[in-house]
Amino acid sequence: MQLLKYPYFSLCKKINIHPNWISLLSLLPALIAAVFIVKESYLWAALLASISLIFDLLDGACARLALKASKFGDYIDALVDRYREVIFYFGFVLGGYPLEAFFALSGSLLISFAKARAAMCVPIDDHDWPAIGDMADRNIVLIIGLIGAAIKPVWFLKYDLLTFVLLSIGLFTHIGCVFRIFYAKKIIEKKAPEC
Questions:
Q1: How far apart are CA 111 and CA 108, in angstroms?
Q2: From the centroid of its chain, how far is CA 194?
Q3: Residue 96 carries which DSSP code?
Q4: Domain residue limits, the chain
Q5: What CATH number is given for 16-191 in this structure?
Q6: How far apart are CA 117 and CA 124, in angstroms?
Q7: Could you give the dihedral angle defined by the CA atoms of residues 77, 82, 88 and 94, in that order, rounded to the nearest 10 degrees?
Q8: What is the pLDDT of residues 93-144, one digit of tens each?
Q9: Rounded CA gap, 20 and 1, in Å?
Q10: Could you give the angle at the alpha carbon of 26 between the alpha carbons of 25 and 28, nearest 5°?
Q11: What is the pTM of this model?
């Protein structure tokens, strides 16, 4: 298999670690990133958040490589994703951004729930739903924002960059949630027209 030439994947195959453990291990760098957010060491926070997200990418690849992919693994992965976001934003709460973090976190959780709740109403497949503010968008904005806060670009000196970043994440996720509500309505009415 092509992936075996990369050291991580051959190591994953050799040590036979279960992919669910890789998912759970992603919480450790997330916790340390939150501590660095509180301490305003934003470059370290960005690095550790990135490491945590790399674990998140690698668990699925390792599961497929080791032929251990499962529905429960998908479930654990999604749950760990939510825990990781809660951890990141809790770091911002303790770091002096409580309202901004609440706005970002509430949008992040609601946009995820909008799809999950639709699946409880009617059967849906696992395709990507149209929306801005999905997990990849949020993570990219968050990491770029942490790096920006660390280097303090001159053009942004009179503004609090992290306030802007967190409010942007909140705005995009809440708008994305509204998009998903309308998309869910269309799917539910199509699959359950009698309701």
A1: 6
A2: 36
A3: T
A4: 16-191
A5: 1.20.120.1760
A6: 11
A7: -140
A8: 999 999 999 999 999 999 988 888 887 888 877 677 777 888 889 999 999 9
A9: 22
A10: 70
A11: 0.83
